[in-house]
Design goal:
single chain; mainly alpha; Serine Threonine Protein Phosphatase 5, Tetratricopeptide repeat; 16 helices; 66% helix
């Protein structure tokens, strides 16, 4: 369960949620404080706004308490502010409450409540919650029944919002014939969308590399497969299982290739690896 939970815990950089908006006064001063690392000042400035019911500030206070930077990490306090924002219909806060229930943060693990809050956020159109709903239906954590067709429906909604995890999941389901007939061409389409997504993790590239390695849904191309596996080995941060898979397949594919092919793949890997992978938007 812990690995399932951590896969959906988003990057908690408060700066991601501070982008945009025409705020002034205490909020702006608090935002500047966060950017220079003075979290205590930000909390002092924002707390009165949150107490008055400013939803965005309530959410941001919750987020600050998840950090453990500038103030002690306190999931209990984070949950209080997320709940106050969620009670006003904030879908990002609803999503975080789902994540906290799923991971047992700030209280006991409660998969029923996690699903309820995720559904509430997903129904409001929050892309990350739609991906989480898809995963809950696909993987059935805690012995819950699996529903691949329902998972696909939620993944499609999130993929329409350019969510890389949902795009990867659709590729995986089509590759394995879960929730729909096996369709390697559609798997390749969704893996490619995830691979090209600037907010992607390793899953899309690994999936697309497998298809190129085996010639499934695309023309067999060991050079392309090696490039993708190579790029994954250089991604940071990356889960150890994904890194191990990429290294193993990279070694296996390279043994089937001629030296000029390997040289070309390494050259392209060097070029592709300099692309920055940005935090996913809220």
């Amino acid at each position: 369960m812990r690995s399932f939970f951590t896969a959906f815990l988003p990057a908690l950089a408060v700066s991601v949620w501070l982008a945009g908006g025409a705020w002034a006064g205490p909020f702006e001063d608090g935002r500047d404080a966060v950017r220079r690392g003075d979290v205590e000042t930000a909390i002092r400035l924002w707390q009165p706004l949150a107490e008055r019911g400013e939803v965005k500030v309530q959410f941001l206070l919750g987020l600050l308490y998840t950090q453990g930077q500038g103030v002690p990490q306190d999931w209990g306090r984070a949950g209080v502010w997320f709940r106050r924002a969620a009670d006003q219909g904030d879908p990002a806060s609803e999503y975080f409450i789902a994540i906290m229930n799923l991971g047992g943060l700030g209280g006991p693990r409660d998969e029923v409540q996690a699903r309820a809050w995720a559904l509430r956020s997903a129904t409001a159109g929050y892309g990350k919650a739609q991906t989480l709903m898809g995963a809950l239906l696909e993987l059935g954590p805690g012995g819950a029944p699996k529903d691949y067709s329902g998972a696909m429906d939620w993944y499609r909604k999130a993929a329409a919002q350019n969510d890389a995890a949902a795009q990867t999941a659709l590729g995986r389901l089509y590759e394995n014939g879960l929730g729909a007939d096996r369709d390697y061409a559609l798997a390749a389409r969704w893996y490619r969308a995830a691979s090209d997504n600037p907010h992607t993790g390793p899953g899309g590239k690994l999936g697309l590399a497998r298809l190129y390695e085996n010639g499934s849904g695309v023309e067999k191309d060991p050079v392309e497969a090696m490039v993708l596996y190579c790029v994954v080995t250089r991604m940071k941060p990356i889960a150890q299982d994904a890194l191990a898979e990429a290294r193993a397949r990279l070694s296996a594919v390279s043994r089937t290739m001629a030296p000029p092919q390997i040289a070309e793949a390494n050259r392209r890997c060097d070029l592709d690896s300099v692309r920055s992978v940005r935090p996913a938007p809220p």
